[in-house]
């Protein structure tokens, strides 16, 4: 009988340790159902260098680098650093920025970097980020909210599905009296 007690204690402590190591015991995060943001894209047109937030860095030999190619923008590579606001007003205080690039390859299949401007909605992948979005991943649904010629367009970003959104809080930066806007990222 004495030799069975250590075996029973060993089994008891093993079962106890397995119950604490269960992955289902931690805090479970619910994904965001909807988070609506706006990013403002001002395309460089050859004259607005001070205001442009995106520019063509690569294009076909026959294309003009200061203007998007033709209607389908085939061959253009555009980099952007767009302010993100909580409404569709370009002059609102930004809560972050969207950074990356568009590749216009005009395939029939929508790729993560392709941005068909006139489609009603587009889904893009979200990977990484800074601030409250550090190491986040998910899917964002983009809709063109307004479009003013080839220079300015406002994108409405909604239905961002991302895990761990309980800690996402927006700290809207204040503008300095000099007009300088401090760098703020999502």
* Low-pLDDT sequence parts: 108-114, 169-186
Main β-sheet description: 7 strands, antiparallel
CATH topology: AOC barrel-like
Label the structural class: mainly beta
Q: Report the helical percentage.
A: under 10%
Number of strands: 7
Mean of residue pLDDT? 65
User: Can you tell me the overall shape?
Assistant: elongated
Number of alpha- plus pi-helical segments: 1
Q: Which architecture does the CATH hierarchy give at level 2?
A: Beta Barrel
SSE topology string: HEEEEEEE
Quickly count the domains: 1
Task: Report how far the terminal alpha carbons are from each other.
Answer: 64 Å
Radius of gyration: 24 Å
Beta content comes to 25-35%
Q: Can you identify the CATH class?
A: Mainly Beta
Structure, described:
With 186 residues, the protein is mainly β. It has one domain: AOC barrel-like, CATH 2.40.480. 9% of the residues lie in helices and 30% in strands. It contains 1 helix and 7 strands, in the order H-E-E-E-E-E-E-E. The chain has one helix at residues 4-20, and strands at 37-42, 54-58, 77-85, 96-103, 122-127, 137-148, 152-161. Strands 1, 2, 3, 4, 5, 6 and 7 form a 7-stranded antiparallel sheet that branches. A hairpin with a 3-residue loop joins strand 6 and strand 7 (152-161). Keywords: Apoplast, Secreted, Signal. This is Dirigent protein. Residues 1-21 form the signal peptide. Homodimer. Belongs to the plant dirigent protein family.
Brief overview:
Helix content is 9%, strand content 30%. It has 186 residues and is mostly beta strands. The radius of gyration is 24 Å and the shape is elongated.
């Amino acid at each position: 009988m004495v030799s069975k007690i250590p075996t029973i204690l060993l089994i008891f402590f093993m079962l106890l340790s397995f119950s604490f190591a269960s992955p289902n015991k931690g805090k479970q995060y619910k994904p965001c159902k909807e988070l609506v943001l706006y990013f403002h894209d001002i395309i460089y047109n050859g004259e607005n260098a001070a205001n442009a937030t995106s520019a063509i860095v690569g294009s076909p030999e026959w294309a003009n680098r200061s203007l998007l190619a033709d209607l389908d923008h085939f061959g253009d590579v555009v980099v952007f650093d767009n302010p993100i606001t909580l409404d569709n007003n370009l002059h609102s205080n930004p809560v972050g920025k969207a950074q990356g690039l568009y590749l216009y390859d005009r395939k029939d299949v929508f790729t993560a970097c392709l941005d068909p401007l006139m489609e009603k909605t587009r889904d893009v992948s979200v990977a990484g980020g800074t601030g409250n979005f550090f190491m986040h991943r998910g899917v964002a649904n983009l809709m063109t909210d307004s479009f003013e010629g080839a220079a300015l367009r406002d994108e409405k970003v909604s239905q961002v599905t991302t895990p761990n959104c309980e800690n996402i809080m927006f700290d809207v930066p204040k503008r300095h009296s000099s007009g300088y806007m401090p760098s703020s990222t999502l």
